[in-house]
Design a protein that fits this description.
CATH architecture: 3-Layer(aba) Sandwich
Radius of gyration: 14 Å
Distance between the termini: 33 Å
Largest sheet: 6 strands, mixed
CATH superfamily: Phosphoglycerate mutase-like
CATH class: Alpha Beta
Order of helices and strands: EHEHEHEHEE
Strand order of the largest sheet: 3-2-4-1-5-6
Number of helices: 4
Shape: globular
Helix content: 25-40%
Length: 161
């Protein structure tokens, strides 16, 4: 069985004229990332790996979650290929994971995340919001063979306020 938790990066700042990849979280993003991570920390699998986009806002979100999960931040795998808005590229990255890894927590971007969870999950989600959490489970032991999975849980910040 393979499990993947997809988390859209938290709300980012548009205050400074930065390249998209360099935009940091804003204060609401930091708050929402803490809120969601604390809500789900008892739900996460016992053993997992964290992967994140190299965009600053995704890295900062991953760091907040990792700290709240007591996950060693030096073990987070930052992948440039996860800086994508395309679900086909996201799917390719996921299908390339080592089969020794049973569970993954992945921090990335929309449209890729929303389209991926709608393609592979059992619940249609109009839009995975910033800091949104979606857990999917697949009845396979090989990442390359993931197909239609099951949506196990969703948590969105607006549900927690």
């Amino acid at each position: 069985m393979k499990n993947i938790i997809l988390i859209r990066h938290a709300k980012s700042s548009w205050d400074a004229p930065l390249h998209d990849k360099e935009r940091p979280l804003n204060s609401r993003g930091v708050k929402d990332a803490h809120l969601v991570s604390m809500e789900i920390r008892n739900f996460i699998p016992k053993n997992y790996m964290i992967f994140s986009s190299t965009a600053k806002r995704a890295q900062e979100t991953a760091l907040i979650f990792a700290q709240n999960f007591s996950y060693p931040i030096e073990s987070i795998v930052f992948k440039d290929k996860l800086y994508t808005f395309d679900e086909i590229q996201l799917e390719q990255v996921i299908k390339s994971f080592n089969n020794h890894i049973e569970s993954v927590i992945l921090f990335g971007h929309n449209e890729a995340i929303t389209n991926f969870v709608n393609k592979f999950g059992t619940i249609f989600i109009d839009n995975v919001p910033t800091s949104g959490f979606v857990a999917l489970q697949f009845e396979t032991n090989n990442w390359i063979h993931i197909n239609k999975g099951k949506t196990i849980k969703t948590v969105f910040p607006k549900e927690l306020n």
